[in-house]
């Protein structure tokens, strides 16, 4: 122990300044914990003013932590903790706080695949069908067009060409209701047609299969079909056609949940087709119309 009161006072001053710079770093770090995880994940971190602000704060904090004064404080704290033989972790409150704190957004999170799909939104029964292959498409379309009011056509980039492209694009039309372009991939090794995307348009919209409808209803219809495909990425073309045909009454069908044609919010018709298995009221299962925002059970 030093006997010089002046030196003692200076040491106390130095320590309290170190503690206050560490406390400042800690409070700024806590603040940044509330920044959205997109700060680190987004490919466009500068896209919004609030992200820009968070990013700036993160940069400033990094500079502060690297500064001599904070590095000095951290070193002093580390050696002081090492020299201190008392068990700091025995402090109950500190332990509690440690346990209660939710995982911080900055910590690397376990990888969660995007593909977190639930069960297939297609009927289980359909799974028994041999899925349509590229070479069977023309015959399938011919038969489909003879037995359905909606129609299928092979779409090609070059007018008049009959060559099936790869990916193959098929146009599905319900007269005066909608046009959908169904894009399917296949290969020599795996000739099964796998639907990659379905894009819906208004019956009189003249747009390419790879663009987007100008109408909300067709945009949300495309989203809904994408959701279905995500639930069963290798669903057969035949199975996909069942809910597609069920869109015939999209502008007159009532949602079976809220019993309205147009949703109360957004005034969009029921774009969801939900499969209900046969029950005591019906001997066959059916596709029920629902709004995207209404309960899906
Ligand atoms: Zn509804």
TrEMBL record:
Keywords: Nucleus, Transcription, Transcription regulation
Main localization (coarse): nucleus
Positions of the UniProt region annotated as Disordered: 72-117
GO biological process, any: regulation of transcription by RNA polymerase II
Top-level lineage group: Eukaryota
Cellular component, GO annotation: mediator complex
Compositionally biased intervals (Basic and acidic residues): 81-94
Places the protein is found: Nucleus
Annotated GO MF terms: transcription coactivator activity
Transmembrane domains' residue ranges: none
Annotated family: Belongs to the Mediator complex subunit 27 family.
Listed name of the protein: Uncharacterized protein
Organism: Mycena belliarum
């Amino acid at each position: 122990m030093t006997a010089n009161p002046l030196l003692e006072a200076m040491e106390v001053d130095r320590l309290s300044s170190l503690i206050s710079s560490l406390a400042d770093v800690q409070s700024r770090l806590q603040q940044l914990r509330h920044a959205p995880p997109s700060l680190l994940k987004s490919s466009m971190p500068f896209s919004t003013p609030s992200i820009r602000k968070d990013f700036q704060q993160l940069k400033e904090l990094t500079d502060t932590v690297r500064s001599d004064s904070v590095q000095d404080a951290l070193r002093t704290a580390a050696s002081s903790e090492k020299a201190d033989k008392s068990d700091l972790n025995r402090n109950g409150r500190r332990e509690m706080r440690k346990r209660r704190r939710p995982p911080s957004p900055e910590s690397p999170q376990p990888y969660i695949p995007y593909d977190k799909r639930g069960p297939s939104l297609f009927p289980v029964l359909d799974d028994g069908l041999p899925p349509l292959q590229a070479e069977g498409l023309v015959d399938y379309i011919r038969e489909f067009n003879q037995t359905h009011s909606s129609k299928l056509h092979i779409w090609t980039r070059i007018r008049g060409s009959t060559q099936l492209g790869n990916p193959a694009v098929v146009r599905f039309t319900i007269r005066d209701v909608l046009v959908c372009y169904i894009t399917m991939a296949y290969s020599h090794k795996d000739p099964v047609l796998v639907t990659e995307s379905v894009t819906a348009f208004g019956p009189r919209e003249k747009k390419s299969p790879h663009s987007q409808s100008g109408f909300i209803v067709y945009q949300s219809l495309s989203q809904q079909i994408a959701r279905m495909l995500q639930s069963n990425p290798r669903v057969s073309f035949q199975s996909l056609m069942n809910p597609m045909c069920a869109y015939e009454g999209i502008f007159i069908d009532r949602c079976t949940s809220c019993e309205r044609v147009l949703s109360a919010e957004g005034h969009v018709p029921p774009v969801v087709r939900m499969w209900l298995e046969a029950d005591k009221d019906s001997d066959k299962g059916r596709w029920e119309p629902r709004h995207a925002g209404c309960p899906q059970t």
